[in-house]
Structures are given as structure tokens and as C-alpha cells.
């Protein structure tokens, strides 16, 4: 796939083509022949709205500020388009927060390795997609607890996951305030839920994604994807590095999860290799390896 087409703007710190390809590979499908705009090269010119499947914008926000630039660039993207940006080392959390404020979710993140021909190594590259406007995502509040319980029971057709959430909520070593997320529909009802709790890989801290639940009437409409992306973005802002999930192997790759065995991570019980997944939130590697230790509420 060509990574440069129409160009505009001024050159600044750029990611290598290899890093951009790695980011785009986890962003989800693009058209077979995507229309690509590179904002980091060439003179400024009027640009058509909603015309580009992929916009490369590394460094193009130097003069305007990232949040303002992200808001402006969103109008250039075609439906389901993707935007690649880069931020300096140490500013990753601010970059994720700016993306969320401007109406995006982070589809993937990768740190620029040395020796790939980029202008600066160590920069963090993000690939962003516009957030689904049908769903409002936010951390749960105390008022949501009964609705979250009902949602989990209805989504799974039995009370086990609802009771798991209650047990995790009561465990101060597992529960992380602000990482229990809901997605609201247009009428304000809780349509989907995702929870991250503290687990460990060996002695190193990690996060377990479970449960993920969608109300029966909201399934296959993007509510689950929206709430998972939102809680993962929150974990990135907090500086977390690793998320683990035991789930359907066809569902979680869209969020960047890969088989945990690639990192030498394994659960302490037998599961199919393709079902145990890991996500490198910072995209920089160097993750811990070893056996996953879940909170006691999981019973494993």
C-alpha cells in the first residue's frame, strides 16, 4: 500500500514507513486502493472534506497544537478513515487524552524503533479512528451499579459474570477505580460494559479485560467495540502497559490483541493458544513473560 499521495504542510518529526505500516495493520481494514494524504510534505493547498482513507499527520501539528489539529483533520477523513500522528517521548498520555477529546479512539500505538530511517527514534505513533457517535462512553458511577449488574446477567443469560463484577468490586487489590466503563445509547440507558482489573504476569502488574457485555438489544451495533476502545484508551492514559483477555479469537484482534504466547505469557490452566490474547498498550515491547495470576474472584 502506498503511504504517500497528496501532500500538504511542513516536514517535522516523522515515523518510518515501516512503523506506519505496522500501525495501519492493526487499525482495521482500509480500501484495497486507499486514498492517502500526507500532511507532512509539500505546500499547503485546499483539501476536500471527507475524501481520504488514510491521513499521515506526523509533525503537522507543530504550529497549531495537537487537539486543535485533530479536530480540524477529522473533517478530511472518509467514513471509517484512519489518521496517523506522532507525539514526543513522555507525552503519550496527553496525546491519547487529546485524541479522545477530539472524538477519536486509539486503534493502535507503536514506538518508533531506532534505525528505521525516521527523523527521531522513541516517538510514539498512534493510529486513530473517529469514535462511533452512536454511543457515549464513560467510567461507571455508583448510580450505574444496578444497571451494570442487570446488563451482565442479561448479556450472558445467567448471573455468573454479574456476580464476578461484584466480587471484583469488593477486592481492593483487583479493583481500579475509573477502569469500569459503560457505553450509553441515545436514550441514556447502559448498552455495553467493559472492565479492567489488576492481574499479574509473574510479579509484574498487568490488566485483565473481563467481562465485556452488551445488552441483547444493542448487540452487533458497535456498542461493545466502543466501550472496549474507551477503557483501553483510559488504560493508556494511566500508563498501563499490558492487557490480557481470554476471549473469542475472531473478535479481539480488531483492538490489537495478539496471542499471548508471542510474549511468553500463558495462563495457569489449559486454553486454546488463539483464545488467550495480549495487547501491548504502549507498542514498545519489553513486556513481562510468565504465568498470569488472576484475582481470586476469577476462581482460577
CATH homologous superfamily grouping of the largest domain? Gcn5-related N-acetyltransferase (GNAT)
Radius of gyration: 20 Å
- Mean pLDDT over all positions: 88
Task: List how many beta strands DSSP finds.
Answer: 15
The CA-CA distance between the termini, in Å, is 44 Å
How much helix, percentage-wise, in residues? Answer: 10-25%
Largest sheet properties: 9 strands, mixed
Structural class: alpha/beta
Poorly predicted regions are: 3-12
Beta strand %: 25-35%
CATH top level of the largest domain is Alpha Beta
CATH architecture of the largest domain: 3-Layer(aba) Sandwich
User: What's the overall geometry?
Assistant: globular
Keywords: Acyltransferase, Transferase
Domain N-acetyltransferase: 135-278
Protein name: Transferase
Pfam family, one: Acetyltransf_1
Folded structure, characterized:
It comes from Streptomyces solincola. Residues 135-278 form the N-acetyltransferase domain. It holds the Pfam family Acetyltransf_1. One of its GO terms (molecular function) is acyltransferase activity, transferring groups other than amino-acyl groups. Keywords: Acyltransferase, Transferase. With 300 residues, this protein is an alpha/beta fold. The protein has two domains: 6-130, 3-Layer(aba) Sandwich (Rossmann fold), CATH 3.40.50; 136-298, Gcn5-related N-acetyltransferase (GNAT) (Aminopeptidase, 3-Layer(aba) Sandwich), CATH 3.40.630.30. The chain is built from six helices and 15 strands. The strands form two sheets. Strands 7, 8, 9, 10, 11, 12, 13, 14 and 15 form a nine-stranded mixed sheet that branches. Strands 1-2-3-4-6-5 form a six-stranded mixed sheet, sandwiched between helices. A hairpin with a 5-residue loop joins β8 (180-184) and β9. α3 (92-101) packs antiparallel against α6 (223-237) and α4 packs antiparallel against α5. The radius of gyration is 20 Å and the shape is globular. The N and C termini lie far apart (44 Å). 45% of the residues are buried. The model is unreliable at 3-12 (pLDDT under 50).
Amino acid at each position: 500500500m502506498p503511504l504517500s499521495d497528496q501532500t500538504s504542510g511542513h516536514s517535522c518529526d516523522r515515523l518510518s514507513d515501516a512503523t506506519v505500516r505496522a500501525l495501519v495493520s492493526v487499525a482495521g481494514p482500509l480500501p484495497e486502493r486507499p486514498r492517502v494524504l500526507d500532511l507532512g510534505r509539500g505546500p499547503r493547498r485546499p483539501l476536500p472534506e471527507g475524501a481520504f482513507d488514510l491521513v499521515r499527520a506526523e509533525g503537522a501539528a507543530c504550529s497549531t497544537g495537537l487537539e486543535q489539529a485533530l479536530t480540524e483533520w477529522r473533517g478530511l477523513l472518509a467514513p471509517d478513515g484512519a489518521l496517523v500522528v506522532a507525539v514526543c517521548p513522555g507525552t503519550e498520555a496527553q496525546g491519547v487524552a487529546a485524541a479522545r477529546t477530539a472524538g477519536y479512539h486509539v486503534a493502535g500505538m507503536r514506538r518508533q524503533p531506532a534505525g528505521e530511517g525516521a527523523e527521531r527514534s522513541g516517538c510514539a505513533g498512534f493510529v486513530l479512528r473517529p469514535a462511533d457517535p452512536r454511543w457515549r462512553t464513560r467510567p461507571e458511577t455508583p448510580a450505574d451499579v444496578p444497571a451494570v449488574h442487570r446488563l451482565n446477567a442479561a448479556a450472558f443469560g445467567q448471573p455468573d459474570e454479574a456476580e464476578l463484577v461484584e466480587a471484583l468490586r469488593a477486592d481492593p487489590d483487583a479493583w481500579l477505580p475509573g477502569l469500569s466503563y459503560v457505553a450509553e445509547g441515545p436514550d441514556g440507558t447502559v448498552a455495553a460494559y467493559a472492565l479492567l482489573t489488576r492481574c499479574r504476569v509473574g510479579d509484574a502488574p498487568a490488566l485483565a479485560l473481563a467481562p465485556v457485555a452488551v445488552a441483547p438489544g444493542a448487540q452487533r451495533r458497535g456498542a461493545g467495540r466502543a466501550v472496549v476502545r474507551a477503557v483501553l484508551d483510559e488504560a493508556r492514559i494511566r500508563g498501563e502497559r499490558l492487557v490480557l483477555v481470554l476471549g473469542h479469537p475472531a473478535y479481539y484482534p480488531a483492538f490489537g490483541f495478539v496471542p499471548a504466547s508471542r510474549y511468553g505469557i500463558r495462563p495457569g490452566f489449559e486454553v486454546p493458544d488463539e483464545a488467550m490474547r495480549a495487547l501491548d498498550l504502549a507498542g514498545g515491547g519489553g513486556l513481562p513473560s510468565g504465568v498470569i495470576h488472576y484475582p481470586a474472584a476469577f476462581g482460577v
